[in-house]
Design brief:
This is Schlafen group 3-like DNA/RNA helicase domain-containing protein. The two termini are about 40 Å apart. The chain has 2 domains: about 200 residues, P-loop containing nucleotide triphosphate hydrolases (Rossmann fold), CATH 3.40.50.300; about 190 residues, 3-Layer(aba) Sandwich (Rossmann fold). The strands form 4 sheets. The chain has a 6-stranded parallel beta sheet with strand order 3-2-4-5-1-6. About 35% of the residues lie in helices and about 20% in strands. The protein contains 12 helices and 15 strands. The protein is of the alpha/beta class and about 400 residues long.
Length: about 400
């Protein structure tokens, strides 16, 4: 698979996509930040933030590649420097390593998950020079024996073992309590060090339709606005899951990378041989299985017959996303607001209790809203929605009719 195919299938920009002025400015800002702190003994942290789809991962991947090119030259201030890019997301790690295999500058060992990086550096005591962290909002904020992380905060440990840290942070993509982040929690870590925060705003993923991104932002906050009418984005509401799935299959045949996705409020287990299903009206499709291959889920042809989850698809681009909103996402016709039913959410791993979060119900509610944000912003060319809750389904249909959309 060449870089063009990889780009079309992932968070990376294709060759036809120009980098925004913000991204060019970001690259210069990161390089200047590194130079400013290169000869200091203290640690320093550069934070990149921005909405889903603004090209954060693509931008830091480009900058990291540039840094590694300089690190592997014989001269220059970065020559011989030891640098890594970390991501706590197995499917995204596959893409980074796949890109490295097709690149003469990057090596697969340049990319790793946070826990092995932390544990290795704790043993050797050797400090990394520059550590990039993609999807830093997935870093653990408590010990996790399953992941072999015994300390209390992965970001704190990464900073401890690095001269400069460059991280991507979006609190609206936090999906588990064990990696619960918000801006106050981030500042509690980075305010101990020199730091800079850079915001990206240009929307890359949702093609030509900022109004769609604005609608999704309002929806995840609880408000249903009229569905935007745009010729540049295929945005429809469905009264049943079967026609939605048929449309996904049609788009997949024409353009590729169209998949069904759902909120995590249909029963499932991660391990075991039992097949669990997502129900959407007359539609019944199996949940995605654990992907033991080196190919990301969305690139496997057979997954057109499955339903992906937030963990499968976070950070990736699809051409079209068919979204099933499960029973945890309801609607109150009297208040005209979304209702979040915590007791209907089936992702028990996401809701493992913590004693250090004052308002646990609010944190859990925000995690479900974040999952909506992640799912609804996957489609580059379009999104289709089916809601299992009758009140929500009717409200969405009326919102579509207001703009003349089916």
């Amino acid at each position: 698979m060449n870089n063009q195919q990889l780009s079309a299938a992932t968070f990376l920009l294709t060759d036809q996509d120009d980098y925004s002025a913000d991204q060019e400015r970001l690259n210069r800002a990161i390089m200047q930040f590194i130079k400013d702190h290169w000869h200091h003994d203290e640690h320093a942290v550069f934070v990149l933030t921005g909405d889903a789809g603004t090209g954060k991962s693509a931008a830091i991947a480009r900058t990291f590649s540039h840094i590694q090119r300089l690190a592997r030259q014989k001269s220059g201030f970065l020559a011989g420097s030891q640098n890594n890019l970390l991501v706590n997301h197995q499917e995204m790690l596959k893409i980074y390593q796949e890109v490295a295999g097709a690149d003469t500058v990057l090596h697969k060992k340049d990319f790793a998950k946070p826990t092995p990086f932390i544990n290795d550096h704790a043993k050797t005591g050797v400090r990394n020079d520059i550590t990039f962290v993609d999807e830093a909002h997935l870093l653990l904020t408590q010990p996790d024996r399953f992941n072999r992380f015994d300390q209390h905060n992965q970001l704190t440990e990464i900073i401890r073992h690095s001269r400069v840290v460059v991280l991507v942070f979006d609190p609206h993509q936090v999906l588990k309590l064990k990696s619960y982040w918000d801006w106050p929690r981030l500042h509690a870590v980075i305010d101990h060090y020199p730091h800079q925060i850079f915001d990206l705003s240009h929307q890359f993923r949702i093609k030509g339709a900022q109004t769609v991104a604005d609608w999704i932002n309002a929806f995840t906050a609880g408000q249903i606005l009229p569905i935007p009418a745009t010729d540049h984005y295929d945005f429809h509401v469905y009264t049943d899951g079967t026609p939605l799935y048929q449309h996904v299959r049609m788009v997949n045949q024409r353009h590729g990378l169209a998949r069904m996705l759902a909120t995590a409020d249909f029963p499932f287990t991660v391990f075991g041989n039992k097949t669990w299903y997502v129900h959407a009206g007359s539609l019944r499709l199996p949940w995605d299985k654990i992907n033991m291959t080196s190919t990301p889920w969305a690139q496997l042809p057979k997954t057109i017959n499955e339903v992906g989850s937030i963990y499968t698809i976070q950070g990736f681009d699809l051409n079209y996303a068919g979204i099933v909103l499960g029973p945890a996402i309801g609607y109150d016709p009297h208040t005209q607001k979304l209702q979040i039913h915590l007791d209907q959410y089936q992702d028990t791993e996401a809701f493992k209790n913590r004693s250090d979060i004052p308002d646990l119900a609010q944190a859990k509610t925000q995690i479900i809203r974040n999952s909506l944000n992640v799912l609804l912003k996957r489609g580059r060319l379009g999104v289709g929605i089916y809601a299992t809750d009758p009140n929500l389904r009717q409200a969405l249909i009326e919102a579509a009719q207001e703009s003349g959309r089916p």
